[in-house]
Amino acid sequence: MRRLSPEPAAELSESELLAAYPRTDGPLLRVNMITSLDGAATLAGRSGSLGSPADQDLMKRLRMQADAVVVGAGTIRVEGYGATLLDEPAQAWRVAQGLTPHPRFAVVTRGGDIPDKFFADPPARPIVLTYASAPHAYPDAAEVVDCGDSSVDPGVLVAELAARGLSQVLCEGGPHLLGSLVAADLVDELCLTVSPTLAGPGSVRIVAGPPSAPHRLRPAHVLTDGTHLFLRHVRAR
Ligand SMILES: NC(=O)c1ccc[n+]([C@@H]2O[C@H](COP(=O)([O-])OP(=O)(O)OC[C@H]3O[C@@H](n4cnc5c(N)ncnc54)[C@H](OP(=O)(O)O)[C@@H]3O)[C@@H](O)[C@H]2O)c1
């Protein structure tokens, strides 16, 4: 992986790559998404086919830095996430940093249709982020957190995670969840992989939902593996 901006640098080491996505002293809501050149969030309904091995490595590094990984239920249903997010070397790295071996894995849902696989053999207690009047039928092992009375309030969601000591949050989408976080102006950082692909008409963007006000972010770096671009933008202060 090379850095194109701000200062060009050839072949970044693993520690340099981890340092390029640091934990912060204060709360952080970091989002990781992928897009095609023409703005598509999926190919044939999945995001994975836009990616590359370097994109998978980046996702792992971001998970290594996180206290909690938050994903919308639609993405869990389509992408088929299991409960374990990190391999043993990544767990060992976290422990060496004084972190728990695994980030907490949280799903955001209204309806509660979460595949069993999400709850199976979890290495850390899974979290269901929902609201008080929603149906609550989850395995006992899950921690169910109400983030509002009649809907999930994104600000309450972030505050509830912080109240559990989970202040470094990585959101991996999908588009409806990201749309609600953007609308509430909660995104501190967007890590966006740009795939060298023209997907053509018919796909969703990385955000979905009702229109909301725009927010500007500040470019922090651009990396490349030779095919994909890895953009990091942070909240403009
Ligand atoms: N390009 C990328 O980086 C990327 C990343 C992730 C996913 N994707 C793709 O996106 C597609 C899925 O899109 P999606 O928009 O359905 O994904 P999503 O945002 O992960 O899921 C939508 C569902 O999540 C729950 N949810 C999301 N936001 C919520 C909120 N603010 N309050 C309460 N519940 C909320 C609801 O679950 P319930 O229906 O359970 O109530 C909602 O139906 C898949 O094709 C996936 O491959 C792309």
UniProtKB/TrEMBL annotation:
<protein>
    <recommendedName>
        <fullName>Bacterial bifunctional deaminase-reductase C-terminal domain-containing protein</fullName>
    </recommendedName>
</protein>
<feature type="domain" description="Bacterial bifunctional deaminase-reductase C-terminal">
    <location>
        <begin position="27"/>
        <end position="229"/>
    </location>
</feature>
<keyword id="KW-0560">Oxidoreductase</keyword>
<dbReference type="GO" id="GO:0009231">
    <property type="term" value="P:riboflavin biosynthetic process"/>
</dbReference>
<dbReference type="Pfam" id="PF01872">
    <property type="entry name" value="RibD_C"/>
</dbReference>
<dbReference type="GO" id="GO:0008703">
    <property type="term" value="F:5-amino-6-(5-phosphoribosylamino)uracil reductase activity"/>
</dbReference>
<dbReference type="InterPro" id="IPR002734">
    <property type="entry name" value="RibDG_C"/>
</dbReference>
<keyword id="KW-0521">NADP</keyword>
<dbReference type="InterPro" id="IPR050765">
    <property type="entry name" value="Riboflavin_Biosynth_HTPR"/>
</dbReference>
<dbReference type="InterPro" id="IPR024072">
    <property type="entry name" value="DHFR-like_dom_sf"/>
</dbReference>
<comment type="pathway">
    <text>Cofactor biosynthesis; riboflavin biosynthesis.</text>
</comment>
